[in-house]
Amino acid sequence: MQKKSYIFGLLLTLTVSLFARDNNIPQPLSQIEKVLASPASQIKVPRSIRFKGDAAMRAMLTTPDNMILRVKMKRAIEGGEAFNNQPRYELAAYRFQGLFLDSAAFVVPPTCIRGIPLARYQEIEPNIRPTFKEVNQVLCLFQYWLNEVTPDDVFDPQRLADDSLYARNVGNLNVFTFLIRHGDNNFGNFLISSDSANPRLFAVDNGIAFGNIMSERGYEWRNLRVKRLPEAVVERVRAISPGQIEAQLAVVAEFKVEGDSLVPVEPGLPLDPERGVRFDGSVLQLGLTAGEIRGIYERREELLKLVDEGKVTLF
Q: Are strands 313-314 and 228-229 parallel, antiparallel or unpaired?
């Protein structure tokens, strides 16, 4: 009898675990972040996503203990930033969502930035030069490659009316895209889980954001596409202070130059708040500018005004 009870309990535990599992991001975020950031993770089977020579690639990361992650990787342009190639925006988007979304509701997959030794990166693209001439490293963005998602029917007005969970997830995404002023509606930048019981939505390309730049492929998500938003998320946005935004986003990554390596260190104060890429030869910082941070808070005020005036309702 005791054995039967044990087996039943084990089956119940496995069943609960199975249904509680997130099919899109099954591993713990902290574990994924550690692999993305680790210099011990080896890049395997890199392939250009769109065309040969594209800065964005799909690859596998393998660890010494045989963990394997599928990732999107994208090298930074020389100098560290260019139109639609802004690693600092991608990492800032990942960090920013944590101010008002629970990790189980994150809309940006785990993301990190790290340097790759030039000689190693040239095994992938032989003619690439270092991101900064002072150090033989190629700065790369790494983002977790989501499972079981599709770019089809991400925004479905009829489903908004019929499916409250979908409506909540759309609201979460739209609050995020409005606040960061997302400016690129290119097909594939937004994804939805293929699991109808848990229709999470994701923004997987946030390189055109935080300002007035817009893509020729559309920019609908920079506006509020829905007039009903989740109350819990809006109230968390209401609680955000300018100081919290600055602390989270003024420096999203900092590296110390040691020989020919970019060694990650704890972020300090911005070397120059008016610049997003700051490099003085010995320290590299990536973050949002003072103006970009101010823009987030202004859009926060605009969102709350719409809510308080009843132009946007809560549920």
A: parallel
Give 125's contacts (C-beta < 8 A, 6+ positions apart): 53, 75
Contact (CB, 8 A) for 180 and 88: no
- The neighbouring-strand residues paired with 178 are none
Domain count, the chain: 1
Q: 44 is in which domain, residue-wise?
A: 24-314
Q: Is residue 17 part of a domain?
A: no
Q: Do residues 36 and 142 make contact, with C-beta atoms less than 8 angstroms apart?
A: yes
Q: DSSP 3-state assignment of 7? A: helix
Q: What is the mean pLDDT of the chain?
A: 93
Classify residue 29 as exposed, middle or buried by CB count within 10 Å of its CB (0-12, 13-18, 19+).
middle
Q: What is the pLDDT of residues 115-155, one digit of tens each?
A: 999 999 999 999 999 999 999 999 999 999 999 999 999 99
3-state secondary structure of 78: coil
Amino acid at 309: E
